[in-house]
Design goal:
CATH architecture of the largest domain: 3-Layer(aba) Sandwich
Oligomer: single chain
Order of helices and strands: EEEEHEEHHHHHEEEEEHEEEEEEEH
Largest sheet: 7 strands, antiparallel
Distance between the termini: 35 Å
Strand content: 25-35%
Length: 371
């Protein structure tokens, strides 16, 4: 076996999008991350602890879907009524399903709906539910996060960071119910209530599938957004924007930048010759080819390393498709894919007369060398 010298695959780095400059953002903190592998593409003060307003409701929703059936009926408690900010006008004693209240919390960003869910799951106690929120945050490793409310209204000590918000959004989006709800622009629930999203990117930016906005005087205009690319999802979190339009424009630029960093690429090509293996009796070397292509989503501005391991020599006969080695692709030292290499053609073993002639010719060459 032999290891060929690493080959840098620079074709991706030549992509026109790789030259795109980083956007300038008017916000206190932001982070752009590849949702598939957690790679951070761009960030600024991503660990700064800041108010996050109604983005909080992602944790509220996560705790709820983990602890309550979606079709369970919730009796609205008096503690959920009269909460300031965005609401759906809940009345004490009213009955709605968990799903309907989740839709109100995540689409309309209704504070009364979030508190009704908290009281239901907290067995009548909103503070008990907040303890569950903080416990879940610790389990997720959200070291910059502490909750004091289920709705996200400004409150001392209610803080998170762009890094933690992004991780929370990625985890929440693994839940089908949450993933479905945050992609909706409108919905109608009990009492003929019409819900309308505050997420201006839904339906206006290609590929956006959520996730949650937030705005208070302390938090400014904030949002965590997710947009699908070809085989990957980019998350962009912006905290503390100055205006709603400015937040939207900056998030569009952050998402564009993140999406431009990645492309699906055939890192291994079917039928390509990756090496040649020597044979016996003077026959031509056999081409080692990959029988199947391998496509991976990779960074356009970072080269990959290709390593090919093939046999030094093979004995004859050898059939077409016989294993000869392997090609491996690495990204920053991590293996991202491999394919077997096989013989591109069959080579037979010469008959007795052919082998005799080859041995005779070889002996004659050695004798000439001695003379």
């Amino acid at each position: 076996m032999r290891l060929l010298a690493p080959i840098l695959l620079a074709a991706l780095a030549l992509a026109a999008s790789a030259s795109a400059g980083r956007p300038r953002v008017d916000a206190r903190a932001f982070l752009v991350q590849n949702g598939a592998n957690g790679e951070i593409v761009y960030e600024h003060d991503a660990r700064e602890r800041l108010p996050i307003a109604s983005i909080t409701k992602l944790m509220t929703a996560l705790v709820v879907v983990e602890r309550a059936p979606l079709d369970a009926l919730v009796v609205v408690s008096a503690s959920a009524v009269g909460v300031p900010g965005s609401t759906i006008g809940l009345r004490a004693g009213e009955r709605l399903t968990v799903r309907e209240l989740l839709e109100a919390s995540l689409i309309q960003s209704a504070n009364d709906a979030a508190n009704a869910l908290a009281a239901h799951v907290g067995r009548g106690s909103i503070p008990r539910f907040v303890e569950l929120m903080n416990r879940r945050a610790r389990l997720l490793g959200l070291a910059d996060t502490h909750f004091t409310r289920p709705d996200g209204l400004d409150d001392a000590g209610h803080l998170s960071s762009a890094r933690d918000v992004t991780k929370l959004a990625r985890v929440a989006m693994q839940r089908p119910a949450i993933r479905t709800i945050v992609a909706k622009r409108r919905e109608t629930i009990a009492g003929g209530r019409s819900l309308h999203t505050w997420n201006d990117l839904l339906g206006t930016f290609p590929g956006v599938v959520g996730v949650k906005t937030g705005h208070t005087s302390a938090a400014g205009w904030s949002e965590v957004a997710a947009a699908r690319g070809a085989g990957f999802t980019i998350y962009a979190t912006l905290l503390g924007g100055s205006t709603r339009n400015g937040r939207n424009d900056d998030l569009r630029e952050l998402l564009r930048y993140g999406l431009s960093r990645y492309r699906p690429f055939a890192v291994i090509s079917a039928g390509r010759i990756y090496g040649r293996v020597s044979t016996e009796f003077g026959r031509k070397p056999i081409e080692a080819v990959a029988t199947r292509a391998l496509v991976r989503v990779v960074r356009v501005d970072r080269p990959l390393v290709e390593r090919v391991v093939v046999r030094t020599v093979v004995t004859l006969p050898i059939r077409r498709g016989a294993a000869l080695g392997e090609v491996r692709i690495y990204d920053r030292g991590a293996l991202i894919g491999r394919r077997r290499l096989v013989a591109a053609r069959a080579v037979g073993r010469p008959g007795l007369s052919g082998r005799t002639a080859w041995y005779a010719g070889r002996a004659l060459s050695q004798i000439r060398g001695w003379l």
